[in-house]
Amino acid sequence: MIPYGKQDINQTDIDAVINVLKSDYLTQGPKVPEFEQAISQYVGAVHAVAVNSATSALHIACLALNIGEGDIVWTSPITFVASANCALYCGAKIDFVDIDPITGNMCPKALAQKLKIALKEGQLPKVVIPVHMAGHSCDMQAINQLLTPYNIHIIEDASHAIGGQYQQTPIGQCQYSDITIFSFHPVKIITSAEGGMATTNDQNLADSMRLLRSHGITKQPEKMLRSNEGDWYYEQHQLGMNYRMTDLNAALGLSQLVRVDEFVAQRNRLAQAYHSCLNGLAIEHVSPLSDSYSARHLHIIRLGNASKRRMIFDAMRAAGIQVHVHYFPVHLQPYYLNLGFKAGDFKQAEQFYEQILTLPLYPELTTAQLEYICATLKGLLE
Ligand SMILES: *Cc1c(COP(=O)(O)O)cnc(C)c1O
């Protein structure tokens, strides 16, 4: 089976993890701050806070922005459920902004329209979470311009997007957002097995997220509220979690980061090969904005004839090709239907979902495999 995504692990990555296993610290050692510093340098953000998953990063990002009961958070319906769940963890209400089917991302026009209605009804969100689907950057400048007048905060869900750029600026620099979060799950661009990172240029947000990832506990003498009792003393200031990344994970992430540009360049070459190889077929490629460089996490196509999607999906799986569908709209998940969402709420997203098919894309995919995938798809479409 040709998988839809796959990590690329070399001997240097393996040695990096083994070295940690032989060292004094398996967790809370030097590798985590090293990884944070490397990410912060790579994306050009002042702070980077490592955690055990992007889901945890989304949770503490929301908490650091004071999301709680009575607040409203908006995200895209075409995403992994974690982008929306983080609001619910905080006791807030979640709602969605419909997408632009060309990019698969939150549509600025739909956002403008929804803001108008929300303003009238006194239901403005406190945070909006645009998701860079497939690694294609959202139109962050447009989104930022719409939200800034109302002091609405922005968290970029860049789980798919490390190594990508928007307006010649690395994703994660937070040029148009408060916080950007990344995922290092094995199917993503680089991996730490499980792991996530939140980047920000705001010292207070970084401090708050550092506290929240480790029980809300501080050991910094200058932060103590009571008098220091001695070297054993620490204070809990907030209700935090244990969302810490281990040094094993950080060492793997750090080693993978060395090759991120290589991975993304190869993913872009393969995406170009899909474009040439599938030229002339009744399909559209979900594509990045012109002033951006996509990290190309996924290669998603839209079929001209949506009614053939199931047949094509099953036939390709039968041919040993693990095509996929990203994503089933979050608002139609049974859990979200129970919250009151229903079919028809976000029509572009629902139509998009019916048409899409994710083709395999990962650095080690060979030209021969890609040609076999294209030939199989062609045969089924004709
Ligand atoms: C993978 C993913 C997440 C969650 O990442 P984890 O590191 O697995 O928690 C969140 N948002 C999106 C868009 C994702 O694809």
What is the overall silhouette? Answer: globular
Content-based structural category:
alpha/beta
Figure out the total of helices: 13
Residues in helices, as a percent range: 25-40%
Rounded to an integer, what's the Rg over CA atoms?
Answer: 21 Å
Count of individual beta strands: 17
| Uncertain residue ranges | none
The H-and-E topology, N to C, reads as: HHEHEHEEEHEHEEEEEHEEHHEEEHHHEH
Largest sheet: 7 strands, mixed
What is the H level of CATH, i.e. the homologous superfamily of the largest domain? Answer: Type I PLP-dependent aspartate aminotransferase-like (Major domain)
Description:
This protein has 382 residues and is of the alpha/beta class. The chain folds into two domains: 11-257, Type I PLP-dependent aspartate aminotransferase-like (Major domain) (Aspartate Aminotransferase, domain 2); 260-381, Aspartate Aminotransferase, domain 1. It is built from 13 helices and 17 strands. It has helices at 11-21, 31-43, 54-64, 82-89, 108-121, 140-147, 203-212, 247-257, 260-277, 309-318, 334-337, 347-355, 367-381, and strands at 47-51, 72-75, 93-96, 99-100, 105-106, 127-129, 153-157, 165-166, 169-170, 179-183, 196-200, 217-218, 235-236, 283-285, 292-293, 299-303, 356-359. Strands 1-11-10-7-6-2-3 form a seven-stranded mixed beta sheet. Strand 4 (99-100) and strand 5 (105-106) form a beta hairpin. Helix 1 packs antiparallel against helix 8 (247-257) and helix 9 runs parallel beside helix 13 (367-381). The model has no long low-confidence stretch (mean pLDDT 98). It binds pyridoxal-5'-phosphate. Pyridoxal-5'-phosphate binds at residues 53-55, 79-80, 82-83, 131, 157, 159-160, 183, 185, 196. Belongs to the DegT/DnrJ/EryC1 family. This is UDP-4-amino-4, 6-dideoxy-N-acetyl-beta-L-altrosamine transaminase.
